TrEMBL record:
Pfam families: Usp (PF00582). Residues 44-149 form the UspA domain. InterPro entries: Rossmann-like_a/b/a_fold, UspA. This is UspA domain-containing protein. The gene is LOC125514282.
Length: 162
């Protein structure tokens, strides 16, 4: 078998410093010791967010149906430029709000990243980097007619084989 090297495209991103909400407990509680390793270790869940209502709905759906206490919720927001402080600050406000909501509702740890580029490609890159248990995205906010007139791309078409 021959190894094929791909050209890895560099991309710009900025880590978001979220409010530290979860206290650090030095020893695991005894009831967690009886649980499976996956439950105790937690999973990574990737949620793509923006300022739209569909994104907010997808975020709340992930909290209600997927997130467990030991999980880490990775919020990803795609922007045109990470060097624009106005865009970064507004995006950070969104991430702060979502991190607080995630902690209040599901007691999950949240990490956030603002990435420069096309939303579809950004989500795919982050999914390849994190290897999450699930990727949650909302719809693009199109009307009912636009959804049926435009061909719907599949996640595997956008990202290729992960």
């Amino acid at each position: 078998m021959e190894t094929v090297e791909e050209d890895v495209e560099e991309y710009s991103w900025r880590e978001v410093v979220l409010p530290r909400l979860i206290p650090v407990v030095p020893h695991a509680a005894p009831e967690l010791e009886r649980e499976t390793g996956e439950r105790r270790r937690g999973r990574d869940l990737l949620v793509a967010v923006d300022f739209g209502p569909n994104s907010r709905h997808a975020f709340r759906w992930a909290l209600a149906h997927l997130a467990r206490i030991a999980d880490t919720l990775h919020l990803v927001h795609a922007v045109s430029s990470v060097q624009n402080d106005l865009v970064y600050n507004k995006s950070q406000e969104l991430m702060d709000e979502l991190a607080v909501e995630a902690f209040k509702e599901s007691l999950v740890h949240t990490k956030a990243r603002i990435v420069e580029g096309d939303a579809g490609k950004v989500i795919c890159r982050e999914a390849e980097r994190l290897k999450p248990a699930a990727v949650v995205i909302g719809t693009r906010g199109r009307s009912l007619i636009q959804r049926y007139l435009t061909p719907k791309p599949q996640f595997s078409d956008i990202c290729g084989k992960l």
